[in-house]
């Protein structure tokens, strides 16, 4: 009794429409845009998604992208702030999940980098971005073992919290900031 995960359904939709982009990378791009302050206007998101996809999205993909945008907007603007990463399910091989996590980070960094900066980011925000860049590069370093699984879960939880950290430590904060450690 296996139900299709949201990631698998989106991956199937993209592949059947001729796109080779990972749903994780698209989701990361969208979350990165939101955390950078680019807002949630459909036109801006669809333009950035079109650029990543390499062509104008077909109607079914366009609708899925708008649905994804509505979900992320809710996650980033609700008071509970509960981010769900669009990644393969726990039943997928660890290498596939780790690769998708790296793609998510790559998309996030691309999306976050789209916003012009008037001020330098805080040291904490720069550290989070550097961590995400490192995670994006280490896509297949985990081995199929209990330790590999544990490492993946730890890294995924950090990545899940990264948007929260960036939304709060990257802003114009007062000189005295509480420590994250």
Automatic annotation (TrEMBL):
<dbReference type="InterPro" id="IPR011978">
    <property type="entry name" value="YgfB-like"/>
</dbReference>
<protein>
    <submittedName>
        <fullName>Uncharacterized protein</fullName>
    </submittedName>
</protein>
<dbReference type="GO" id="GO:0005829">
    <property type="term" value="C:cytosol"/>
</dbReference>
<comment type="similarity">
    <text>Belongs to the UPF0149 family.</text>
</comment>
<dbReference type="InterPro" id="IPR036255">
    <property type="entry name" value="YgfB-like_sf"/>
</dbReference>
<dbReference type="Pfam" id="PF03695">
    <property type="entry name" value="UPF0149"/>
</dbReference>
